[in-house]
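Entry 14. Structure prediction run on the chain below.
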Amino acid sequence: MTDEIDRVAEFLEHMEKERDVSPNTIKAYTRDLAEFVAYLGTYYGTEGWSWQGVDRLAIRGFLAHMVRRGASKRSAGRSLSAVRSFYKYLHRNEIVEANPARAVGAPKRDQHLPEYLDLAQMGTLFSAAQTRSEGGRFTDVRNLAILELFYSAGLRLSELRGINRDSLDMLANQVKVRGKGRKERIVPLGDRAILALRNYEARRDDLLRAIGSKGDRTAFFLSSQGRRISARALQNAMTALLDLVSENAGLSTHSLRHTFATHMLDAGADLRAVQELLGHASVQSTQIYTHTSVERLKQAYKSAHPRA
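Output returned:
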C-alpha cells in the first residue's frame, strides 16, 4: 500500500509546484484523497488494492459513504473532483489504463440563493462605516477602505487580503487581483472606493513610519501591528459592520461579493461582463445572481399586483 500512498504524494507535489494550484486547493485535495484512501482500505478489505484496480463502483461507494456521514452534496462533489484530477494525472503518466472517475456523475447540488444586501442596507452600512472612520482611528479608516473595495470590485476575501501596494493603480482606478487557480485579472474601481483607499493609504504610511523596519511594506491592508491583515481579522472587521445592518443574519464578506453581482445585474450589466469581474471560470456560476433578481421581482409582483 505504500506505493499507492506515494502516488498521492507525488500528485499533490505536482499540483503545487508544476500546476501552481492555490494552497487552499492543495489542502482540500490532501484531505479528500486521504479520506478516499481510507475508504478504499475498508471497501477492498485486507486483500489490498491498487489504483489500476479501482473501478467506478468503488468511487460511487465513496460518494455514498460521504453522504451517509453527513457531508453536503457540495463537499461530495468537491471530493469527486479531487479523485478525477488525481486519476487524470495517473492516466497521463501511464500508471493506470483509464480514469474510472470520469464515468461517475457528481451529486446534484441543492441551489441556494446567495445572501445579499439591498441598496438601502448598503447605504446604512456605508453611513455607519463612514461615521466611524471620521474619528481617525487607523482600523476604522482601514475598514471603510476594505468595505468600499469589497463592494466596488466584488472580490473574494483571499483576493482582497492578498492585494499588495503595487497591485493598486489609483490613477487608472483599477486593481490587479489573483483569484482561484492563481489567475490574475484587472478589476475597475469606483471613485468612492479610490477616495477611501487614498485616505487609508495615508494612515498606512504613518503607521509604517512609526513602526520602522518591522512593518510590511508590500501588503496593502495591514493590522495595527503593521503586518498583512489576517483572514480572520478581515472577516471579523466586516462582520462587525454587517451586524449593524442585520444582526445574526449570517452575513459575511462573501455577502458583499453577492451584493456586488446582484446590484450590477439589476442595473443592466451584461452577464458575461459580471462573470469576468467576479473571476468565474464558467458563466453558470454567475447565473445564480440572475435567479436572485428574478426571485425579488416575483416578491415585488406578489406584494403589489391586485390579482397576484
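Strands lie at 168-169, 174-178, 184-188.
Filed with the rest of this week's runs.
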